[in-house]
Amino acid sequence: MFITGLTEKEKSRRYRERLKADPEELAERNRKKRESYHKNKKLISNMPSEDKENCRIIWKLRKQSQRNRQKAVRNIIENTPPSSPSILQEINLEDHFQPTTPRPSRAMSSKNEKIRGRKKFDETGLNYIEKM
User: Fold this and answer.
1) For the chain, how many helices (H) and strands (E)?
2) Residues 6 or more apart from 56 whose CB is under 8 A from it?
């Protein structure tokens, strides 16, 4: 009979359980991590001027991309129509409609046949690509 070893997930779970079982060891480990963080942390006030500039440029670009992501999400939320009229949401739809079974899909005649009604989006995912 062949016995398999523990997976990485199981090993790390057991390791964390062992650490949590001994609060003193956990506190010591956390103290060492905190000391290491403070020792290796770099303050911008202690950097040379070139590194400061580079750091601030990186921060600026990251903030720009964060704002663009938030703006895209906001646009999607604002421009998405509601899923159903508010009157239908107040009515219990289960009482009025019976669930239907899905129809079987038709087999495509060839692999290269395009599905009608499918539209392609640009890289932002917000606008349709027009056919030329």
Assistant:
1) 5, 0
2) 44
Residue-wise pLDDT tens digits, 50-63: 999 999 999 999 99
Count Cβ atoms below 10 Å from residue 77 Cβ, excluding itself. Answer: 8
Q: What single letter denotes the amino acid at residue 52?
A: K
Question: In the chain, which residues have pLDDT < 70?
Answer: 1-3, 84-121, 123, 125-126, 128, 130-132
d(CA 74, CA 72): 5
pLDDT score, position 19: 86
Beta bridge partners of 51: none
Is 101 within 8 Å of 107 (Cβ atoms)? no
CA distance 93 to 84: 11
- 52, containing H or E segment: helix 49-79
**Bridge partners, residue 128, by sequence:** 121
CB count in 10 Å sphere of residue 72: 13
